[in-house]
Amino acid sequence: MKITKICCIGAGYVGGPTMAVIAQKCPHIQVTVVDLNEQRIKLWNDPDVNNIPIYEPGLSEVVAEARGRNLFFSTDVDKAIDEAEMIFISVNTPTKTYGSGKGLAADLKYIELCARQIARVSKTNKIVVEKSTLPVRTAEAIKSILHNTGNGVKFQILSNPEFLAEGTAVEDLFHPDRVLIGGETNAEGEQAIQALVEVYANWVPKDKILTTNVWSSELSKLVANAFLAQRVSSINAISELCEKTGANVNEVAKAIGMDSRIGPKFLKASVGFGGSCFQKDILNLVYIAKSYGLHEVADYWEQVIIMNDHQKNRFAKNIVTTLYNTVADKQITFLGWAFKKDTNDTRESAAIYVADNLLFEQANIVVFDPKVSYAQILSDLTYLGSRTEAENKEHITVASDPYEACKGAHAIALLTEWDEFKTYDWERIYAQMNKPAFVFDGRNLLDKALLTRIGFKYQAIGS
Ligand code: UDX
Ligand code: ADP
């Protein structure tokens, strides 16, 4: 089966970049990305390609090449479903905030709505591909909805988890470590798997395209993220020990990372991991383990989250303690709000939780992030529910210039590892701050020797 038309439901951080790259690499396939969010689609179609709603290095170039040729963004979901032979589901699956599984399980209501819409609209056979991160056995649920339409249309469901990391999404899509495709282990399933293999084979070497059964594919995604997050929590646990013992976590990370069995990646101590996947996927894993009565397994993985929460809280607490046990009415400047550099995504960013802690202590926070808007920052904080938006507004503001942001500050907290922070004129920043001028480097990004020489009281993680 040769695919000529693809539809992708969800024009977010996963659907947008993935479809842009598929369209660029497969000019013979028409790719339509649809979303209910009209504003988002409007921005994807903005004549100035720099205004697309997602910031990712290299993405606007890819969109510029393919858009209007074989890449389209639309709000007409039904039409795109109807025309496509293959439909990707890339909608958001946040952690449930209500009912059973609250705070742990993934909320599948958006997925279910998609499945029902596909069932209602389809007049010809379709391959449905789960792209969103999903709990194991979601394909079963989708299948059950699709197979009970009674209109004779046949559906094959594939799991094709996304492994791209934000900030390097385009590079990750161009040169993936692997592409994973799970499907049913019968002739039709095999055919559907091959159809998707052929799409990726336009640019990915075949030996990097793995095919498995659906459940292995679904579980592999959760486990990959759990392992990555576990490495970050492991090194963060050691960072606290380093601070007490006089060891330096960067040196420890380098020393252990040179062991080829351990490897050097994902050993960077930080203020804590964020992003839309790590916490959600581990919570999912914990929920699944609990639901099978595997309490030791659940507790083991839950500890990765507990450690991460501890790391964010102790970073905030240390700021308060160091500033003579009070930050009330003091100005703390945040450099960075995004959950990592090179993205405008703020979901689960450590900055949100550090800010929340400091706002409880009545600090005044000024934020500078090269890509994140004030509206986003307010919405992140208000979503936590600790105080009203009006109260948040009173104590947190943004500056459009880093020097403005740091003027009059008692302390700077560096929360995101944006490269540009390294290149600032730190003498100038020092001159305009309250003294003693503190820097809490939550990413071990800045040059300690330089900052100390200038006069800053500099503290990093794990040393
Ligand atoms: C992750 C996975 O890497 C990706 O494969 C999956 O598809 C989605 O989830 P992402 O969340 O976009 O990607 O970014 P990632 O680079 O994994 O970083 C996650 C968080 O961990 C960030 O907050 C980052 O700053 C933090 N981190 C990462 C560390 O604190 N230290 C490290 O050494 C690595
Ligand atoms: P992710 O990081 O998984 O891509 P995002 O929140 O960035 O998550 O993107 C998911 C997108 O899916 C959002 O833009 C949302 O509007 C869209 N969406 C959710 N449900 C539907 C639906 N039923 N039909 C179309 N789009 C949907």
Automatic annotation (TrEMBL):
Enzyme class: oxidoreductase
Ranges in a coiled coil: none
Any one GO MF annotation of this record: UDP-glucose 6-dehydrogenase activity
Active-site residues from the entry: C277 (nucleophile)
InterPro entries: 6-PGluconate_DH-like_C_sf, NAD(P)-bd_dom_sf, UDP-Glc/GDP-Man, UDP-Glc/GDP-Man_DH_C, UDP-Glc/GDP-Man_DH_C_sf, UDP-Glc/GDP-Man_DH_dimer, UDP-Glc/GDP-Man_DH_N, UDPglc_DH_euk
Domain UDP-glucose/GDP-mannose dehydrogenase C-terminal: 333-448
Pathway linked to the protein: Nucleotide-sugar biosynthesis; UDP-alpha-D-glucuronate biosynthesis; UDP-alpha-D-glucuronate from UDP-alpha-D-glucose: step 1/1
Source species, domain of life: Bacteria
Catalytic activity: UDP-alpha-D-glucose + 2 NAD(+) + H2O = UDP-alpha-D-glucuronate + 2 NADH + 3 H(+)
This enzyme's EC code(s): 1.1.1.22
Residues that bind substrate: 162-166, 221-225, 261, 268-274, 339-340, 443
The entry's keywords: NAD, Oxidoreductase
Described function: Catalyzes the conversion of UDP-glucose into UDP-glucuronate, one of the precursors of teichuronic acid.
Family per similarity comment: Belongs to the UDP-glucose/GDP-mannose dehydrogenase family.
Protein's name in the database: UDP-glucose 6-dehydrogenase
